[in-house]
DNA sequence: ACAACAATTTAAAGCGCTTTGGAGATTTGC
DNA sequence: GCAAATCTCCAAAGCGCTTTAAATTGTTGT
């Protein structure tokens, strides 16, 4: 059923039917009702492609996901982020277009999306510190919003980020207050902007108490379970092993816990752990009592907010870029306790 | 840059330029070269919407993801599946359109996709045993392929599935061979078809040795870490606690391990565990030596294969439905050992 | 040199929708 | 009662591409 068929069926012109369905005032309420009803009856939906061509709006938003060898983006948070974004999209009537591309094809992917005009805007994931993609998109002129920020980028752009610095500063302070002095940072890859900011927060807290960060306690890597496990194994062999771990992801934190327990130690007593918790739907931080003390910030919520932010950007062209900074919440669980008195 | 501009630039008609770019034989090799070069120079890409309208092919494939309250689909495997599918799509030139909808809006979502004509085919996720969506899509007539199968559906359709029954039968056999008799099944939600098949495999193995399955050892639920943890806690309080756990997901298996270790027991010695392992990129089953004995089947690979299967379905209409059954591989790790001799 | 044929190229229609510029019909003001 | 204003509605153009049908050019055999 297309517009033509529907309009002959109704004995009206395509113009009138189109207007009736799209809520234009030039059509009488009576005919609008009639049109609506018959359209509904026949389950009419305007052909997206034709509509997009005619209006110049694709009603779709693109996500370019790099398929790097390290799968940096295809990580656990992806699903939840997409779920949040998808929620916002579908209530606003937008489709979500995913484009998974090899790392090296990324800039071409953005150019393509812009030239092919199959999306009205783009969400940029996992920004690095100076991210060429941002400058690229600024040039291309397609609306976009970044999940995260880039530290070294000139010119304004829309973004939504967690306050990583303050979250990790706060978490480090919490551990310091408990008497810990050797705190191991199990961070994400340093090229990622969020990881840089987290380290900065960690270092700021140490420096505020005149503690020099020990490079032997700084780790950066892809946040897998095995990475957390290995890091603990390795650091516990040090002459002065850390008494606390500050971990960038709950997945890695599971590995951290495994290593701790395998060593016959007890988390929260012998060794303290704080993790960042993206509040993933399938990896909740315990049920009633949180397992880990954590800096929590729902990535699903972030997805939902960022999508709305981008949509508003698209629908108000010319408006200045929008930004939103979410604060993580420190939830105290059973993984932290006073630093043990070493002899 | 659109076709019109490009063709006046070249001093050719739109027809010729279009044909040159799309590889039709009616254009001389010399002009084709020239067209290609200039198009490349100006970074020309045909407008997707116009092309889709003209050809009737959207060059996009839809995934409808139910956003149920339980987030059954928004689970860890989602990211990897999508990564695999996306790979296949992008090499074949297709876009991926995700539509996240509330559970109750699902059938409308399928109807909409069909009527709006913005996708050429649909991937159906997480089928239930009798899944109304399959019959719906059969009626609608849009090409589709199912990730998994439905047991109680008449009429053929395309699907790709892991041989869940044989995998779990094999795993159960393995445990039985080790002397375990009380094996607890920590399964996914029973409404899901895969969970049903896994239970069937488990029961078949028991019955083959004349062991009656104990209902107190059968669990079904959403496969979170906490679910695995709770199930072990609960079952270890039984008069005759199980000596082995057969788990449907590595996430739940992490919870199982946590409970075992928290109880002061050793996995692989006191209690054996086998898990199904979807070979997730960020949750590898250990590094060199697998942590868990597992029935492994890469969900990313499944995504990639299913996408290809659907594309071939789309490009050869009229061909009979395609199906593919993947066998899971049993990898022996350190989580299994002989059943302890209880007194 | 000219018909016959093949090789290139083009004009124009069409995909299904929105939207501009009017046209009829109806109401209003005096 | 009639011009002006207001409601409704419509024909047709246009979005950027593909594709059909036809025109143009080039090649060949005699």
From TrEMBL, chains A, B:
Q: Name one GO molecular function term.
A: transcription cis-regulatory region binding
Provide this UniProt record's keywords sorted from A to Z.
Answer: DNA-binding, Plasmid, Transcription, Transcription regulation
State the protein's name: LacI family transcriptional regulator
Query: Which residues does the UniProt record annotate as the domain HTH lacI-type?
Result: 1-55
Write down the superkingdom of origin.
Bacteria
The answer to whether UniProt assigns keyword Transcription to this entry is yes
């Amino acid at each position: 059923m297309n517009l033509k068929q529907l309009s002959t069926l109704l004995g009206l012109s395509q113009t009138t039917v189109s207007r009736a369905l799209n809520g234009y005032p030039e059509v009488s309420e009576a005919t609008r009702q009639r049109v609506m009803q018959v359209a509904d009856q026949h389950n009419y939906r305007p052909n997206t492609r034709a509509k997009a061509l005619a209006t110049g709006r694709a009603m779709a938003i693109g996500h370019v996901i790099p398929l790097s060898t390290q799968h940096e983006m295809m990580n656990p948070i992806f699903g939840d982020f997409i779920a949040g974004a998808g929620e916002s999209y579908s209530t606003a009537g937008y489709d979500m277009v995913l484009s998974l591309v090899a790392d090296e094809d990324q800039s071409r992917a953005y150019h393509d999306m812009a030239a092919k005009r199959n999306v009205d805007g783009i969400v940029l994931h996992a920004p690095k510190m100076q991210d060429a993609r941002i400058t690229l998109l600024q040039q291309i002129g397609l609306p976009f919003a970044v999940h995260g920020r880039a530290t070294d980028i000139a010119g304004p752009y829309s973004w939504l980020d967690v306050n990583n610095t303050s979250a990790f500063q706060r978490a480090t302070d919490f551990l310091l207050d408990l008497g810990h002095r050797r705190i191991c940072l199990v961070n994400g890859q340093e090229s990622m902007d969020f990881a840089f900011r987290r380290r900065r927060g960690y270092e700021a807290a140490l420096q505020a108490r005149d503690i020099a960060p020990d490079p032997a306690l700084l780790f950066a890597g892809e946040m897998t379970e095995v990475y957390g496990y290995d890091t603990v194994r390795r650091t516990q062999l040090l002459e002065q092993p850390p008494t606390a771990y500050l971990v960038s992801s709950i997945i890695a934190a599971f590995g951290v816990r495994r290593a701790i327990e395998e060593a016959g130690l007890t988390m929260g007593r012998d060794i303290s752990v704080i993790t960042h918790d993206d509040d993933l739907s399938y990896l909740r931080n315990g049920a009633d009592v949180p397992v880990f003390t954590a800096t929590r910030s729902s990535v699903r919520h972030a997805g939902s907010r960022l999508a709305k932010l981008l949509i508003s950007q698209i629908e108000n062209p010319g408006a200045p870029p929008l930004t939103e900074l979410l604060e993580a919440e420190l939830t105290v669980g059973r993984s932290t306790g006073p630093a043990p008195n070493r002899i």
